[in-house]
User: Fold these one by one.
Assistant:
Number 1:
Amino acid sequence: MRVAVISDMVRPNGAGVMALVGARLLAEAGHDVTVLAGAMSADLERQLAGQGGAAAFTNDERALDGSVTESDHLAFRRAVKVWLEAELQQWVPDALYVHNCGRILEQLDLADLSCRYPVVHTMHDEWFISDAHYTFRSPRNGETVRTFEPGRSEHVLEHRYDHLFDVPTRVGAFTAIAPSMWLADRARRVFPTLDVLQLNNAVDHNFFALQDRSSCRDMLGLPNDRSIVLFVGSPTQERKGFDLFERAMRTVDVGGEKPVRMIAGGSASVVTDNFAGSISAGPIAENLAVLPMSPLGAIGVDGDALVISGLDRSLVPALYGAADVLVHPSIIDNLPTVPIEAGLCGTRCLASDVGGTRETIADTSDLFSIDAGPNEIGLRISEALSEAKRETSRDRQLRRNAQVERFSIDQHCDALVSIFDGVIGRANP
């Protein structure tokens, strides 16, 4: 089977990871795979090309985030489609495996492609069924927030949705994969005649191995005498819930000790003055040596904090392992990989009970209501930090076992190949 994996941005984070994992699993299963990206770094393009096949329309991700004018942006999208058509004609795939693509394609583009090639589309958010990545109520002002692709109107009255009604009549051999049952149910209500299947995202449990907290801290240069609470995600993206995390952290107190906030995400690495002297030589100290582009105060932190951006991916498991507890307070989510990865590393995760998060957490008793206030969440964090001091290696192993059982790569690969066999069979009865 020859498969073209398509995504707007292919990179080692977010949905880009899922595109890369999918390509690797299909290749390891003996299939010919090429990765086609709207944007991908030149180094990654060369690496993937050497492993099988890869091409990118541009090596600059910023080009996908909008042009100077609306007409420029439309011209850019037309050029991407011409490029993609040429790549497909050259590769002649048996099927397309599409991930995030809203920056380069629209829903009807996928429908039309499925009349020429069998298409399997993994929905990493609500874009395919609503034209917005997510819809949620802002905790700041109560207004409804809809997150669209760059270059698209953010106002509902100015946004056209009529093309979505044409999707069911335009599709050919097409299967939509929803990583969570939450999203699968929503997609089936919107498109009851489409083939929508649920398949958990695969997470590399060999890469995210069980971690020892003390060893991780020694390797990263973090102190062993402070409690550390981890937040993973952009602190400036409202959907990630950093504001709630910060307000909760201000109430946390464990025997008179105030824990350190470790924030993995954002545009720059920076540390508060009081905590800087506690970081010894290691990869984090080297990362912090690059002067930040924005001050820590811009995200409103009141306490000891370390913000980490651009750390080598090989160190991510150690980052999870170094934390006493991870807090994942997203306002809305599909099937977030952060709770899965934390559990695989043995680290406890407290998370908001939204979207498909319940399907990812190692222990559902660690869920909290998104309507919970900062005092309630702060109390949960304080209790988790106290319990972390008594945590055993067996406790950490049990969390990992729960995640491996649900998100193993072998199970995912077998199911994925079966899905491709089915959609190709419908195209070529």
Number 2:
Amino acid sequence: MNETGRAVLDGFRAKLVGPRGALAFLDDLESRVRQLLANMVDGRVLPKPEADELRAAVMDFVRSEVLPKLSAKNSNDAILVLDKLKEYGWTSLEAERPRLEQARASKYPPPTPASWPELQELKSSSEGHPDFCLVCRPVENVYFAEALREDGLPLPEQLLALYAAHDGFDLSCIAELPHVPVFSLLPSASIDESESSDGYPRRAACFQGGDEVQLSVYRDLKKAWWLVYEYEFQPVAKKPLHLQELLRFALRRMRAPTFEALNEGELSWERYFDVADGERG
């Protein structure tokens, strides 16, 4: 390998050192890959044979040094490297993915799935009304919860038990056409963050309640869990989190007789959160 290639790999090794080595390496890797797509290094165009040789050297380095180093600490970091390479069409290391995903699942197994009556009703609804009730397979691991916890957004155990039963579902109003969404559990990979505002702390947005409605969860300093009603991404009201109660209400919304009942009547989110008229804004 020539001096340019050795400099690139030595730079990778330097990035891998330190507590945030995985993120630093991932940023450097993306920068190098984007340049190599144009046969470039540090703004200099390489002859194609030299660029091909460097691309092969980078992939060999990732396979032989990066993936073993990262997976020894956190298999998810190694998977993120594969994700980044795949994003740019570099897929020759995809054979490594099943092993890494199995290691991640083994370290972060899902809890015992929830077995609430509401979930049986959800299953029956998906069988009887598949166009209005779509349920997903159970989550394969709960690393997502660990990543959120490290970011200061823990999730309640009862919610993880729900994900262990279904990694997301979507409900629509059976009586209304065209499609009127009424409630969904976001897939674990799509959980979002709601920023702190109006006296509400940062929180994990795990549910959608229909157009412009989002529901998020957080734990207060007394370890109590709260469900927050957000309209157009702004917090409106909160109440203690009771997932079974929330699911019962969502299933009732799916069977609402009219759109008016969903929007303004007893099956509206304002009614569920005891929001006074005009308080939503």
Number 3:
Amino acid sequence: MKLNIEIPRNMITEALLTQKNIPCFCKVSANFEISFHEPVPEVVGKVYEWDRKELGKRVLAGVGGEYTHYTSGMITLKEIGLNQYQIMDLSFFCYSFGWCPIIENGIYATPKDFWDKE
């Protein structure tokens, strides 16, 4: 999974991009967008090389509305080119289940067991 985003380059963002679990906001519809609000001016990027079916195995979709997922997230990025980042870690927050890992160490995380077997 990769993120295409133009992040202003300065001392703050340079330090931010070395951190793990950066707070973000995730919106998934036909497109997958990730936005950052602090400490940089708001920027929005598009995720590519993602699979809706694999995402759905790791976090439950919401109900109704334009987006299947509209939630807070945590992300770790690795720069791979101009305005391009490999998503190394990504989790979505789900009100019923807490943090749901989507990507760990650059690959899809083990799917979460959301429901009891009974």
